[in-house]
């Protein structure tokens, strides 16, 4: 399997497949809860460990161009290790909290809250820590996201069927989004400093760190599945590690390399849509009016951020636009995510 840069049409297909695959991860987790005996931390461990093993195999087997060997200074090697460790820590929070949210409040709400609040947290944090201008669209997006979260938390039916909105589950989804936002902001800052590593390698090692960090907690929770229906459990675990993890992220990197970040962000909205469809059709979750309204507010907030990004790209000089479009989008686990939420790095104005 090759992850080389693809033409734009093929790249679009890659990102569509990746986003659809990400949308199935929570459904697989929900299907495994109960009968398999595995909890959210154990599932996150097996996803990370399996994804790391598969990505490592791809890295070892794919042809690599001959490169000039340079002497790597210990300081640079240490900085690279710190970057990978920070990415792994954020990925651990992102993935583990997401699976905990799926178990607590259902697949549809957990996915929408995570992906809807993530880009908004990124926009707010970038304004506070990096001085990025929020803009009118960003302000409206933040207001819309907060309104959507309020509707979900306050309007949920406490006695409803599966997929009931529970404040604790919404909180876990926001925590997951915070882990995703932290990695995205760090990746953006490293890119500005000119020290960002290769997205594929960073993601691969981040999954390895995630598995190592979760091993003690997963062991305490119950690392091994029940013997009952073991074949089905192993099949679903294999799917979780391969399709929405190794395959999806590999396709994402290949597609994002040739697409504008705004395009990638819009296509990534397939993930919450596909997760919601699976939640209703296969898991029997019930969507109340409050859930639908809150979901619409959150996805609308993401749409406002994407539109604001597109306007910002049109204002940039052509050289800066080419530079921003060529850079890897920051929503993957190198920037972790189930989906992208990055914005272009604007060149500072010369005074």
UniProtKB/TrEMBL annotation:
EamA domain span:
10-153, 169-306
Q: Which UniProt keywords apply?
A: Membrane, Transmembrane, Transmembrane helix
Q: Does the keyword Phosphoprotein apply?
A: no
The record, for InterPro entries, names: EamA_dom, EmrE-like
Q: Where are the transmembrane segments?
A: 12-33, 45-61, 81-99, 105-126, 138-156, 168-190, 202-220, 232-252, 264-283, 289-307
Pfam families from the UniProt entry: EamA
Offer a single GO CC term for the protein. Answer: membrane
- Disordered as annotated region, ranges: 327-351
Q: Where is the composition biased (Low complexity)?
A: 327-337
Q: Which family does it belong to?
A: Belongs to the EamA transporter family.
Q: What is this protein called?
A: Drug/metabolite transporter, DME family
Native organism: Actinacidiphila cocklensis
